[in-house]
Amino acid sequence: MDIAAFNYIRDELYSELQKQNFCEPYEYEDEKGPAIMCRTDVVAYSVCYYKDKKSFILQSTNVNERGEPGTWRQLSQWYYDEKTAIREDYESIANDFVEVVRGPQSIAFVQNTKKRKKTGDDENNIDPLFFFNRLANIFPEFKDAMNEERIVFGQIRYATVCKNVVAPLIENNASDAETMKKTAELLSYMYKDGDADTRCLVTAGVLNNVKDEAVVASLTENFGKELSKVYKYSRKLIGKNIKPEKVKKKQKVVASSLETPKAKR
């Protein structure tokens, strides 16, 4: 392996990750080849030289409560043959790896710093992130899904996660009466006091994607009055193509001259 290339890529990557509060890089055992890792309490990045494929690989994973990395997910791979490569080659690899880890961080920063516009009386401050953190208290495995979203996309795609993760989690735990009761109470609370986005996630995002009617019936038994009232109507919208409201055409108005007609001489 080209030590100079490996060290250069490692140092360039850490110069970016340091800004995101990752620890200093340290070596760890990877079956593919020499590797280093930088991590926080929940996320880790790794640079590995895959000997068999003569490639540098950037990887990411979740970190459990004991600080141990999970299964690595490949984010970028570059072929690198030290016998024919030149300095510009590993500089390009380093630049790409830095852009990969910088991209999600920048997106997340923009998303988190946007000021939420409040209209009318919609000034509730319970947002989707608060909702998801509370869900993780009921379903501990949900934390991994949240972390994966942050690693790959730089932000949590709330609607997608509600459909693909939260709804199936609820169905898979339907036999646990206590869990169903806690879930129903949480959904009711989030709908009652959440902002517009959170209320929409509760109904259209989560509940309308629970396919098993028996599970829905189990949940509704513990709904609060606000959610009970609206959800029976929300459920009827499943599968329907809701067209946006048509914008009414404005009538053309011919403006007459505001000037006083000149008197004829």
Question: Could you characterize what this model shows?
Answer:
The protein is of the alpha+beta class and 265 residues long. 48% of the residues lie in helices and 11% in strands. The chain is built from nine helices and five strands. A five-stranded antiparallel sheet has the order 1-2-3-4-5. A hairpin with a 7-residue loop joins strand 1 (26-27) and strand 2 (35-39). Helix 1 (3-17) runs parallel beside helix 2 and helix 5 (158-172) crosses helix 7 (196-206).
Sequence of secondary-structure elements: HEEEEEHHHHHHHH
- Nearest-angstrom radius of gyration? 27 Å
Spans of at least 5 consecutive residues with low confidence: 106-123, 252-260
Instruction: Output the strand order for the largest sheet.
Output: 1-2-3-4-5
Return the average pLDDT rounded to an integer: 80
Shape: elongated
Percent of residues in helices: 40-55%
Put simply, the count of helices is 9
Which secondary-structure class do the elements indicate?
Answer: alpha+beta
- Biggest β-sheet: count, sense, barrel? 5 strands, antiparallel
Number of strands: 5
End-to-end C-alpha gap? 100 Å
Query: In percent, how much strand structure appears in the residues?
Result: 5-15%
